[in-house]
Design goal:
Nonspecific Lipid-transfer Protein, Chain A, 5 strands, alpha+beta, 7 helices, single chain
Length: 149
């Protein structure tokens, strides 16, 4: 199953009506569960007091995430991003499904990074090394099928 850009735009229209804060808090809630062990092990401490922006450019959706008090936190547009990553939904789905690594997508200019390069590289390296827990394997398989495998 391959989703066309037109269908994605139509399906995402209601999401664009929600403020960045709502998107960011929902994503933070999910990431806190998926990355629970990494958080406990201190693997996200490099994000303390920092904010990362994520933009899904073809959908017009933005996230602002940070780390503090032992958890990933979602912020609104008022929180300036120290580093930002942007790209299309397809590229982020490829990352989430573990089909492509971040280096490949950045070198092919399918993902773009701006702001604090050092923070961005820490984040990229963390994502490359992160092994999702077994409990999210069904989700990853579903993403893989969505991508047409």
């Amino acid at each position: 199953m391959n989703l066309s850009p037109r269908l994605l735009t139509t399906l995402s229209a209601p999401l664009r009506l929600l403020p960045t804060l709502a998107h960011s808090q929902a994503l933070a809630l999910t990431l806190n569960q998926v990355m629970k062990d990494a958080i406990t092990d201190g693997e996200l401490d490099f994000l303390k007091g920092r904010t990362v922006g994520i933009e899904i450019s073809d959908l017009g959706i933005r996230y602002r995430l940070g780390f503090g008090a032992g958890r990933i936190r979602g912020f609104g547009e008022g929180a300036p991003a120290d580093a930002s990553i942007s790209g299309g939904l397809h590229e982020f789905l490829l990352l989430a499904a573990r089909r492509e690594d971040a280096d490949t997508l950045f070198f092919q200019r399918r993902l773009r990074m701006s702001g604090d390069t050092e923070l961005g590289l820490y984040l990229k390296n963390f994502l490359d090394a992160f092994e999702p827990p077994a409990r999210v394997a069904p989700l990853i398989r579903g993403l893989d099928r969505l991508l047409g495998r």
